[in-house]
Structure formats: structure tokens, C-alpha cells
Amino acid sequence: MIRLSLVACCAALGGCTTPDVTDDIAAALTLTTTLQEPLQKQLGPQAEADLRAAEQVLINKDKLVLEIVECGPDDGVDAYGLLIDCRLLNAADPTAGAVNAYSVIQFVSLLEGYFAALSALATTTSTDAIQAQTTALLAALEETGAGRNGALGRLGAAAARNKEAAPLVAGALANQFRINALRRVVTRADPIIAEGGAIAAAFFDTEQSPMRLRQLEMFEAWQRADAASRRGDKGAHRAALDDLKVAHAAFLAADKSSPATAFRTLVRHHAVLLDRLTGTPRTDDVLQSLTQIDAVLTALRNRS
Question: HEC profile for the chain?
Fold first, then answer.
């Protein structure tokens, strides 16, 4: 279960001047990584087909699809002092037009890289490293499409390789420096997370999704109960009432285990994180957000 002690402490003290948001970020990263594997299995083949179709569009127009980038000896280093990997830049854009499997997979990849890099920033011990990582994260967020994903992915991977074991920089000034950096990054990222999350949620929230089908069954059971009550049919009313209870439980289970709910939970959680960093948090919102992530995590793990 996600740790809620710090939030409870802040509530008792009437708020935290420089909030420790490491648990908030860790919760988001855990939910993202938990979501990643089943979605990759479910959507991976279709996402690859989406990419190949977009590449074929360029091939048919005799346009070059791939470029080799950042492979020269003078291409520099990233925020962690590591040489930037030689990589291929794909000019194809499978996300153009309708939402598809590729765009959902890419958004989950973006979230994973972003939250991993943000987690590293929240626990960085050096002011120079805080500055360097903040600059790199803001630059990555200014990228578009695959460029943004690639930049955030490299930052997230570097963060995992260079996780610091030392305690946080001590002192109010050092803590405030870190919070200011996090505030800048989260403020810039929030509209990106909100838009991408809404699109990804819509991909799974269709009329034929398990969540909507269970919801329809719940409403139909209620209608049967209402009709039986109006005509005074007590036996039918009892049967419909039992059906309604079962259908309601099934809907709640389908809702919690739906990727659409996971994406909406992440969007809301990120907005609450921004509120904490900007000094306008409601403790109830923080607790509710972390509790919702716990519930979604449990449902996703039980589903797989």
C-alpha cells in the first residue's frame, strides 16, 4: 500500500511549507509501470502495425523514413554526464488522425520516462544536479511527438542507472531549491499529461468496453426493479434488486480495472501534485488521490 503517513502528518500540522512529494511521484511511477506490461501485451502488435502503416505512407511518397542522430563524437552529454546514445529518428507519425494503439503505448512510455526522471529530481542531493536535471526535463517536455518520448525515456533510464542512495540535501533553502525545480517541471508537464491522459482514456472507454457493458447491465437491472415496484410485483422486484446488487459490484470492479480509469487517475494525481507544489493543496484531495491509486493498482494486479 502506498505510504500515507507524510500526508497525514502535514494534515495534522496544517500543511507543509516545503512538501516532500517523493511518495506522490513514486505512486504515479508504480501505477504507470504496472499498467505498462499488460498494455504492451494487449496493444503491442497493433501499435507495431500502426507504425508500419505510417512508415509506408512516407515510403509511397519516396520520403526518407529514418535518420541517424546523436552519433557524432561531439554530440555532447546528458544531464547525468552520460554520452547520448546513437539512435534512429523516425519521421513517420502514426499518431496523426484518430487515436490508435500506437499513441496509447507511446503515452504510457512518456509517463514512465517522465515519472522516473521526476523521481530522480525529487531525490537528487546536489544543487548542480538539480539544475542540470531540471534543464534537461524542461527541454525534453518542449520536444514534440517521438522526440519528447525519446528524450524523457533517456532521462528516465539514466535516472534508474544513477539512483542516488545519499539522503536529501539538508536545510530549508536546499529543500526549497528542489521544490522550485519540481514546480517548474510539473507545471510545464501538466497540460501534456492532461491531454494525453484524456486521449488514452477515451481509447478504452467505448460503448463495447467491459466497464460500459457492466454499467449498462446495472442500469437495466435498476429499470427492472423500478418497473416491478411500479406494478407491485414483489417477486420480480426482489429478483431485480438482487441482480442490481450483483451488477453494481461488477461495474465497480470493471471500472477500477479499466485502463481508462488508470489514465484518469494519473491525470488527477498529477494535478494534485501540482497543487501541492504550488502551495494550494487540499489534504483530502491528496489522500483521496493516493487511495484511488491504491485501489486501481489492486484491481490491475488482480486482473493480470
Answer: CCCCHHHHHHHHHCCCCCCCCHHHHHHHHHHHHHHHHHHHHHHHHHHHHHHHHHHHHHHHCCCCCEEEECCCCCCCECCCCCECCCEEEECCCCCCCCCCHHHHHHHHHHHHHHHHHHHHHHCCCCHHHHHHHHHHHHHHHHCCHHHHHHHHHHHHHHHHHCCCCCCCCCCHHHHHHHHHHHHHHHHHHHHHHHHHHHHHHHHHCCCCCHHHHHHHHHHHHHHHHHHHHHHCCHHHHHHHHHHHHHHHHHHHHHHHHCHHHHHHHHHHHHHHHHHHHCCCCCHHHHHHHHHHHHHHHHHHHHHC
User: What is the reported pTM?
Assistant: 0.80
Using the structure block, give the residue that is written with the C-alpha cell 480495472. 257
Amino acid identity, residue 304? S
Residues forming beta bridges with residue 77, ordered by sequence position: 83
Contacts of 190 (CB under 8 A, 6+ apart): 270, 271, 274
Return d(Cα 299, Cα 304) in angstroms, integer.
9
> Mind listing the pLDDT tens digit for each residue in 29-52?
999 999 988 899 999 999 999 999
Q: What is the pLDDT of residues 132-182, one digit of tens each?
A: 889 989 988 888 777 787 778 778 777 766 665 444 455 566 678 888 999
> pLDDT for 90-137, tens place per residue?
888 887 767 889 889 989 999 999 999 999 888 887 788 888 889 989
Q: What are phi and psi of 166, to 5 degrees?
A: -70, 155
Task: Specify whether the CB–CB gap between 164 and 124 falls below 8 A.
Answer: yes
- Count the Cβ atoms, other than its own, within 10 Å of residue 266: 29
Q: What is the rounded distance in angstroms from the CA atom of residue 208 to the CA atom of residue 192? A: 28
